[in-house]
Amino acid sequence: MNDGTSILNQMNDRSREVFRQVVEGYLQTGEPIGSRTLTRTLSEKISAATIRNVMQDLEFLGLLDSPHTSAGRIPTQAGLRMFVDGLLEVQHLDDNDREKIDATLGKEANDVGDIMDRVGSALSGVTQGASLVLTPKHEAAIKHIEFVSLAHDRALVVLVFSDGHVENRIFVPPPGQTPSSMREAANFLNALAEGKTLTEIQRDLKGQIEAKRRQIDGLAHDLVQSGLAVWADDDDQAERLIVRGRSNLLGQDGQEQEIDRIRVLFDDLERKRDIAEFLQLTEDGDGVRIFIGSENKLFSLSGSSLVVSPYMNADRKIIGAVGVIGPTRLNYGRIVPIVDYTAQLVGRLLSDRR
């Protein structure tokens, strides 16, 4: 099939209007839209038979579908994609929504985790959907690294950041480490770390170790890798995915099939170890992005949509993301400005904490 924008440009006014009305009606009600309904809402007065012919043409193009034996139509994933890209009218942020978000995030927060928990609650509460928040890693430059032996099978790695933040974690060191090898490993890392963030150190570490292997003995080499791997671990709680409002995805009259779909969705979320993939979704473009159905690479499940936006620190670097997930018939025009505003507000709040 041709590119959606190209198809939209080739449509006549009547086809475009029928398509828009079907999609908007479906997004509002979740029900198939029939020709009789459109005869009452179209600006142009045309017969139900003519509308049915137009809908059949749109179905042939892969933009509409006929569920079950219903005479009505619903948009396909391709149709929703074309509507979002070419016909979606993004609303202004509602004053009431803005006030609710401001009220939730405007309170004094003790730490970043508290802020991000509130972000998730605010988004799910305002949108009545499920919210996703990827919290930032601590990305200040490293000032000092130290290894401390606790027992033959336990060691402590301490990170002191240039902004005064301190983190320490216990890990299993390579067998037979000595005070000398631990000092050597720390000296190597401190020389490498000067002025760099942990992410930058991890990126440079492999090449540096290979290049300077002769300058660091095998034991210290293993200790360096073991100690820094603690921060690259999949269980790293310095970066985590917060999900709020799961119950919002189950309506009062939720069908068993819908409940199973939502259960699979969240099982998939909880199994996903590499949550950095969520942030990767936002890095290919600025501002809010919309992923419909199987376009959403984070989830194996088709039949859900994600509206997501990155947030940035004071240096305009993407450090996390916020989003709303729900069925494909989300009210995109309302959700987009809410997600956009929340992402910008989070960025400002985190920047002010520097």
Automatic annotation (TrEMBL):
Domain of life: Bacteria
SUPFAM superfamilies (UniProt xref): GAF domain-like, Winged helix' DNA-binding domain
Protein purpose: Negative regulator of class I heat shock genes (grpE-dnaK-dnaJ and groELS operons). Prevents heat-shock induction of these operons.
UniProt-listed PANTHER family: HEAT-INDUCIBLE TRANSCRIPTION REPRESSOR HRCA
Molecular function, one GO term: DNA binding
Name of the gene: hrcA
UniProt KW keywords: Repressor, Stress response, Transcription, Transcription regulation
Domain Winged helix-turn-helix transcription repressor HrcA DNA-binding per the UniProt entry, residue ranges: 14-78
Organism: Thalassococcus halodurans
Protein name: Heat-inducible transcription repressor HrcA
GO BP of this protein: negative regulation of DNA-templated transcription
NCBIfam families recorded: hrcA (TIGR00331)
Entry-linked Gene3D superfamilies: 3.30.450.40, Heat-inducible transcription repressor hrca homolog, domain 3, Winged helix-like DNA-binding domain superfamily/Winged helix DNA-binding domain
Residue ranges crossing the lipid bilayer per the database entry: none
Keyword flag DNA-binding: no
InterPro entries reported for this sequence: GAF-like_dom_sf, HrcA, HrcA_C, WH-like_DNA-bd_sf, WH_DNA-bd_sf, WHTH_HrcA_DNA-bd, WHTH_transcript_rep_HrcA_IDD
Domain Heat-inducible transcription repressor HrcA C-terminal: 114-336
